[in-house]
Design brief:
The structure holds two protein chains of two kinds. By secondary structure, chain A is mostly beta strands. In chain A, strands 2, 4, 5, 6, 9, 10 and 11 form a seven-stranded mixed beta sheet that branches. A four-stranded antiparallel beta sheet of chain A has the order 1-3-8-7, with no helix packed on it. Chain B contains no helices and eleven strands. In chain B, strands 2, 4, 5, 9, 10 and 11 form a six-stranded mixed beta sheet that branches. A five-stranded antiparallel beta sheet of chain B has the order 1-3-8-7-6, with no helix packed on it. In chain B, strand 9 and strand 10 form a beta hairpin. Classes of the chains: A mainly beta, B mainly beta. The interface between A and B is medium-sized, with 25 and 25 residues.
Chain lengths: 113, 115
């Protein structure tokens, strides 16, 4: 069964450093998403991406964040200058169409020191 | 705006007993509703979803949920708990107000199954 994959599974970085989280969505899906879950809190929507542009974003997704689909298979989330409060589990998801089920990857646990 | 409330962050049941995980939603437009399950160190796996049509939806692993518009609820049930059901369960909602793109999750309910 096709699945969303994410790398790395864990990332430790120093405050102020840039990090890039990688995702490979399901191959025939058109919509891509990033969510995050701070420890003990809800899973929160960050951004959705379609046709090579952001289609929806939350107030969390500020100028420190960016997304990119650099080739036909990868979807990345970049945090330019990490803060302590960026420590969280980051989930990538994809769906075939808008409104269709979003399939989630296993997550990348980011720890900012 | 859309939101989800899950009553009970931890639920314990005996093996073989009924599982009932509660979820209430708020949405200004007709919602799509989901239950996801997360096993330790794994991602979110879809259990079941409601979009339109039949209000009782059946999912994987013997789970089902009923959409009750009058009660704004989407409770998850399973007649007989199995040890393998121990996991964290998330109720979620999306709607056309977010272009069906933004999924809003509840806080999650950790299910413990006692032998």
């Amino acid at each position: 069964e096709p699945e969303v994959t994410q790398t790395p599974s864990h990332q430790v970085t120093q405050m102020g450093q840039e990090v890039i989280l990688h995702c490979v969505p399901i191959s025939n899906h058109l919509y891509f998403y990033w969510y995050r879950q701070i420890l003990g809190q809800k899973v929160e929507f960050l951004v959705s991406f379609y046709n090579n542009e952001i289609s929806e974003k939350s107030e969390i997704f500020d100028d420190q964040f960016s997304v990119e689909r650099p080739d036909g298979s990868n979807f990345t989330l970049k945090i330019r200058s990490t803060k302590l409060e960026d420590s969280a589990m980051y989930f990538c998801a994809s769906s075939a169409e808008r409104g269709e089920t979003q399939y989630f990857g296993p997550g990348t646990r980011l720890l900012v020191l | 705006a859309q939101s989800v409330t899950q009553l009970g962050s931890h639920v314990s049941v005996s093996e073989g007993a009924l599982v009932l995980l509660r979820c209430n939603y708020s949405s200004s437009v007709p919602p799509y509703l989901f239950w996801y399950v997360q096993y330790p160190n794994q991602g979110l796996q879809l259990l079941l979803k409601y979009t339109t049509g039949a209000t009782l939806v059946k999912g994987i692993n013997g789970f089902e949920a009923e959409f009750k518009k009058s009660e704004t609820s989407f409770h998850l049930t399973k007649p007989s708990a199995h040890m393998s059901d121990a996991a964290e369960y998330f109720c979620a909602v999306t709607s056309n107000s977010g272009g069906y793109q933004k999924v809003t999750f509840g806080i999650g309910t950790k299910l413990q199954v006692i032998p």
